[in-house]
Amino acid sequence: MTEDTAERGERIAKFLSRAGVASRRDAEAMIEAGRVRMNNEAVTHPAVFVKPGDMVVVDGKPVNEPERTRLFRYHKPEGLVTTHKDPEGRPTVFEHLPPGLPRLISIGRLDLTSEGLLLLTNDGALSRQLELPTTGWLRRYRVRVHGGVSQDKLKRLAEGMVVDRVKYGPIEASIDSVQRSNTWLSMSLREGKNREIRRVMQALELPVTRLIRVAYGPFQLGTLPRGAAEEVNGKILREQVPGLAK
To answer: Is 152 noted as a catalytic residue in this protein?
Structure first.
C-alpha cells in the first residue's frame, strides 16, 4: 500500500470484499441498494474511502476490519450447491463446512453433481483475482464419460469448440483408462465457464457421469478427505499470489 493510499483509505467496495462480506461487484450492488452505511451516513456510491476507525455497517450489522487474507482447500462432495443460500432449498457447501472456520466465499464454483477441490477465502478481492482467466491458472479434472473417446474428439477439444453459440477455449484431454462402456479422462482448462466440461462433452455425445477437480492452479486436492477443509500456509499463499499483502 502506498503512502497516498494509506492516507486516503480504501474504496468501500474493496474494503467489504476483503472483509468477506461479498465480492466487489456484489458489494457495489449492496451500496446501490442502500444497504451500506459509514459513520451513520448512507453510502450512495462506491467511490467512498474507508479509513482506520471508520464504522461501516451492512444491513444494520457492523463490519469488522478485514483480517489477514486466508485461503482454504476444501474437498467438496457431490450433492452440494456452491452458494450461501439456495432458492430451491438444496443443501449448500457453506452449510456443510467444518466448524470453526471464518466467513468464507468460494473462488469459482463446482456444480451440484461435481466434486473435488474448491478453494475458499475470506477475501473477496482475492476470489475475484483468482477467478479471472487472465490469471492463467490451470484447472485440472478427472472426468468419467459414457462412451468411447476417439482421437478425433480429443483433437476437437484441443482446438476449442462452439456449443449453443458459446465459444469454449482449448481443453487438454488424455485417456487414462477404459472400463467397459466408460472412459476416464484427465482434462485441463484455463477459463472454466459455467458447466464447460459437461457442455462440450455432451456436444461430443460423451455424457459426463463423474467430474472431480483435482487442482486449481498450484493448489492440489491431494489426499484431503471428502468434506474436509485445510488452510493453505500463509507463506505458500504469498509465494503463489504475487502482490498479496502480508
So the answer is: no
User: Model-level pTM?
Assistant: 0.78
Tell which residue, 106, 56, 55, 110, has the closest CA to residue 78: 110
For residue 199, which of 172, 150, 161, 173 has the smallest C-alpha distance? 161
Where do we find the cell 475458499?
120
Contact at 8 Å (CB) between 138 and 172? Answer: no
Q: Which residue has the higher pLDDT, 23 or 174?
A: 174
> Is 69 within 8 Å of 59 (Cβ atoms)?
no
Contact 101, 229 (CB under 8 A): yes
The one-letter code for the residue type at 217 is G
- The pLDDT tens digits of the residues spanning 162-221 come to 999 999 999 999 999 999 999 999 999 988 788 999 999 999 999 999 999 999 999 999
Rounded to whole angstroms, the Cα distance separating 102 from 4 reads 31
* Residue 121 grid coordinates: 477465502
- 124 close to 130: Cβ distance less than 8 angstroms: no
Reported as half-sphere exposure (CB side, CA atoms, 13 A), residue 79 has a value of 4
Q: Which of 111, 123, 152, 164 is catalytic?
A: 111
Q: What is the pLDDT of residues 81-114, one digit of tens each?
A: 998 888 999 999 999 999 999 889 999 899 999 9
What is the pLDDT confidence band of residue 7, given thresholds at 50, 70 and 90?
low
CA separation for the pair 220, 235 (Å, rounded)? 16
Angle at 174 between CA 188 and CA 187, to 5 degrees: 20
